[in-house]
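Standup notes, structure subgroup. Blocker cleared on the protoporphyrin IX containing FE input:
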Amino acid sequence: MVFETTGTSIFLAVVIVVLFLFLSRFKRPKPNLPPGPRPWPILGHLPYLLFTKEEPQFVFERWARQYGKIMTLELGGQTAVVLNDLDLIKSCYQSDTFNGRPKLSTFEIAFGAGAGIGTGQHLHWREQRRLAVSLLRTIRFGEGVSMAEIVEQEAGKLLADLATHNGHPIDLTHILPKAVCNIVCAFVFGKPFEYSDPRYILMLWLVYQNFKLAGPSAVAYSSAFLAKLPFGPGKRLVDNLRAFKQFAEDHIFEHEKTFDRNDIRDFIDAYLSKIENKDSLPIDESEIFKHLNLVWCVNDIFGAGTETTAGTLRWAFLYMILFPEVQGKLQEELDRVVGRSRMPTLTDKQNLPYVEATIQEINRHADIGPLGVAHATTQQTEILGYTIPKGTLTLANAHLCHFNEEYFDNPLEFNPDRFVDADGNFIKRDEVIAFSVGEYFDKKFILYKKLY
Ligand code: HEM
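Run returned:
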């Protein structure tokens, strides 16, 4: 009798699960969302992206051809709307409605519920970004060294390091981030690290790993489903972030011990000074500037500033190897404008149109963020007749813009000359959206202009 009851229960449970899986395969998650491919039960479209050797942007490209300017995907419990058209991306990202960030479950599990610059929205985003930008305008290191000089110093160290290999082949994967990140570290921690510092090397390795694990647009960071699994990429992301949190906290602790409000050395000091003056801040701001959010900010700047730039530089080296004629033209322009007795500086940029064109072509062709960085809607909104609920993750399909034949002749070809006019002037093109678009980009770009 007992066996019969148990057998019936198991049978019923199996029937319910199978029925649920069957129904959820055909159910659209929410009404009036844009169309999209048929999702799998529970995992949605993740299996299409996880169980293939194809890069996700190419899977997205095929879907975009089928579903048009806008499509819906289910990514492990998170509804995502993908914008496949440049004008649509521009009009959406120019409005505040599309400039939120999705909930980042992996970060929340690793750090606690807070928000940084690139991970926060509304006031968190505005105030913490404002602090970073204003500091970049004023900061001087040690003997009054400027940010631009720090960049030059790191470039010099990198060249010296490369020279030690005496022309032998080397793997640049882990050399470039050391130099790039040190510029960010000077700003955040007030000092660069030794290239041989084991903890620094470990942190760079974790950032590199997380970039690969989180995938294009860093969507995996927001999947609560992946983050809570006891194995797999979500768990590894969380473990890596926990290790980074410890690193950030150790540095914050050191700063607290030596903090002097009259000598603000770096971003951490500037942030601690905000925390110290909490009582004089408007009530909303005093909620933002706290220890937990400082950890988020340190992670945001360290993470966002390292692999993006190092990855782009790795591509740049590859293009120079593959296209020696481009390398020759660059060298000729640099020799003519800058000469060989000094390093180029940012003020030379306006006289280096071919260098500018090549950088823009690298950003287009290397396409290192083919789906941008995930945004989220801050309220329910109507678009092209569809209803997008509040909190929907949105992705800008940069890949389609970068390889669109309507915008670029022969887009697969690497060709910096496409950005140079008949008089040899640099042509800046809106269709290259490696750094995002519109007002959002302009605001964010201030941060870059000060750093690089
Ligand atoms: C080739 C280099 C880089 C590329 C292609 C790149 C690309 C991007 C993109 C696509 C976004 C998301 C924009 C959006 O949400 O629509 C972003 C955000 C961000 N990046 Fe970069 N980035 C690069 C270098 C850097 C560097 C050097 C830093 C240094 C600090 C940095 C810091 C940030 C921050 C803090 C955010 C969040 C900004 C915000 O939400 O206001 N990035 N980046």
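Discussed briefly. The chain has a mean pLDDT of 87.
Next: hand off to the docking folks.
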